[in-house]
Amino acid sequence: MPPKGGNRRKFAPGLASEPSSTPQTPTLIESLSYQHIPKPFKNPNYIKNINRRTKNLKAVLTQERERERVERERRRQEREEEINAGRLSRDAPEEEIPTYTSIEAAPSILPQKHYCDITGLEAPYTDPATGLRYHDKSVYELIKTFNPSTAKEYLVARGVNPIVK
Amino acid sequence: MAEQLNIIYLPTPTLPVPAGPDSYDEHRGKETPLIIDNGATNLRYGFATSAEPHTGPNVIAKFKERKSNKQLLIFGEGVEMDSGARAQARNPWEGDVLLNFDALENALDHAFIQLGIDTDAVAHPVLMTERLCSPLHSRALTSELMFEQYSVPSLAYCVDSVMSFYHNNLPATSNPFVSDGLVVSFNTASTSVIPVMSGKGIFSHAKRIPWGTSQASEYLLKRIQLKYPNFPTRVTSTHTTWMLQSLCEFSPDYSALLRELKDPIKLRASERVLQFPFNAPMEVEKTEEELMRIAERRKEQGKKLQEMAAAKRIEKLLQKENDLQYLTDLREGRGKEGKKEWTAKLQSEGFENDAALDAAIKKLDDNLKRSRKKEVDGDDPEPAEEPSFPLLDTPDADEGLKEKRKQKLLKAGFEARARARREKEREKEEREADEQREAEEREENPQGWADRLRREHETTMGRIKERTRRKVALTDRKSAVAQARMKNIASLAADDRVPKKRRKGGGEDMFGADDADWAIYRKINIAAVSSDEEDDLARLGLVEQKLLAHDPTFTHAQTYHSMTTQRSALLLAMRPQYEEGDVEGNTRIHLNTERWRVCEAWFQPSMAGVDSAGLGEVLQNVLARFTDTEKERLVKNVFITGAPSQLPGLIPRLRSTLRPILRPDMQLEIVRASNPSLDAWKGMADFAQTSDFPSVGVSKAEYEEWGGERIRRWWGGNWNSSFVA
User: Fold this and answer.
1) B60 to chain A: closest CA residue
2) CA-nearest residue of chain B to A52?
3) CATH fold for the domain made of B34-212+613-706
């Protein structure tokens, strides 16, 4: 029976050879890494809530809107109470609390200027078949050669979504 | 025309140099305020006493290096460098909202390491930036991070643009900050307008447009992709951000600019050409010797093949001769044997009777003679003898009928072939005569000949154009052509094609008796490409060839092909065409109208599909909520800040937008921050060193009591959920 040690040596030859190789110079990317640098200023006792997922933008904004609505209700109620109690006159202006959504600019009310989808110049004409705006005859000739998907891409760049869902 | 183009090459990315951490000694134990300008593009951080902050792109990547299998964490510029890092790049911001707190934590780690902090906690009061009216969720998580993870003693939030305004309107020392102004802040994913009255930011009247550099660079990318759908290299948003920063500008009057650019020459003059890296095609230059050697080799190969073919032919000849010999021997042997044996032998050879054997022998003989002649002459002689048809002249007898029929067919075939040969010869003679005549005409009267050909050219082109017009008109259901077609179809299918009387008497529709009736299907069937068109095109080709060869004034530009594929001068100026093989030319991007179009979107976001008012309109709305006296105070100091405000042409554009909506006697002054990217940080640093700073922050105790969302209300910070303490 062959000694057991022999088998072990056969199965793990690779590990033995590693330490003999010279240490390689770190690449640039490795020298930029700070994974292994000690960070003493971090509090080791702080356990992050691992279950907390990074919320996406839509969820955050909806949550904000809800909170804002609740808050406004509360303030309105308080105001009512104060007015009833006579502490505040009804004419006193309601304080506006700016929030992320209320700050957003309103849609434009100015008439939209038409610009050519292809060249960017002024576009007095619109192609009825595709809906693209164009500057003159020669651009129209070019539009006629487009296939439907190209025309749709131009429209999407303008923000007009031609797909009816 | 390379010298006329101003070709710009994409910048080659420079490698970042890993910098060692700062020395912490000067701040150890001193509690100098730590200023962090947490921007969506760049993170700026430093101590309040430093003159300049550290900056770095606000992006981290946590990934495993492929080769060394080590876990790496990279911040800032290094992320762009490595493809593995780029794939795992994370940005703490999503547009305008701080969402990814792991990324923020890693970024802050890097910041603190760089500052050399080696104590147990970050023992400095911190002043950080927030977005205008930032969502409470973001603020709560940031506060949690700062207080719990880094244990800062106090934390204050501010709005970056107001601090930049503060820096540029610094009051004299120990005087309160009471400046007025209208702050226009250009950020990565939004642009905001904030009025500041008497040193207080009036956030309830502020407005934010969801358009910033990230949207602008995405829009530019989309425009480039539409303009160059088959571009060989991939254009990324980093490229377009660079293009936006270096090539795009605002125009003070966009409509006037567009009217000017209608002219193709001005369009070409206004363009900037970007050369992307390309692979030059490898051209192996063959020297004369090499060419000769290759030609020789080819000749030798040809000769070898010829020899092989000749050898095979000789072999076949021999084989045939042997066969012939064998068969003739067989025939001669006929006489020696009896009839029965003879027929048996024939059958075994595969011949039915004597005649078949004779015919076979004759065929082989002829074949041999012909091939032997070919070897000698090298050319196929026409069968000189006329095969004879003896039986044809005899009257119909019963036995030889089959033979006679066979011979009739053979004769007919032979005569038909002879006729065809004669026709071909006649045609050839005619054609030669034609060409001769034309050559004579050309020499005698070149002008007349050219005129005649040109007229023919034009009429043929006219016919082709007419046909294409008709085809296009047919697709429109209501056009006259389409209706005429329907009328034709209806009349063909009508019941009264056959008059009633004849129908009763069993009359039939006589359509098709006359050959010309079928011509109507040409008009009805639009799917088939009519042969007329092909004929026309072929004739056009011939005429053009002749004209090109002999008429010096007829150029390639006038041929049908180039006239149909020609693009207008305007389109050519928009997007110049390069030859197929011109690899360098085909990896160029020409930007002409896009340069201004992208910046115009700040003032008209609807151009890019964003349903929002533009900067001009928003300014108007914001100003409208103030009284005239207040307005006067605000517009005397319109302050623009933020890195994108460095785009050229912004100030003249704002002036021409604001001037018309203000009363003529109101003074309008537009000022840009002295250092638009860094002034926010500098303003924060200035403020942090005043005595007011400690009173605006939230201390750790207050955080533990109130939670992360409540902050103190002060002139530079947001108001939502804040309390005045």
Assistant:
1) A33
2) B101
3) Nucleotidyltransferase; domain 5 (3.30.420)
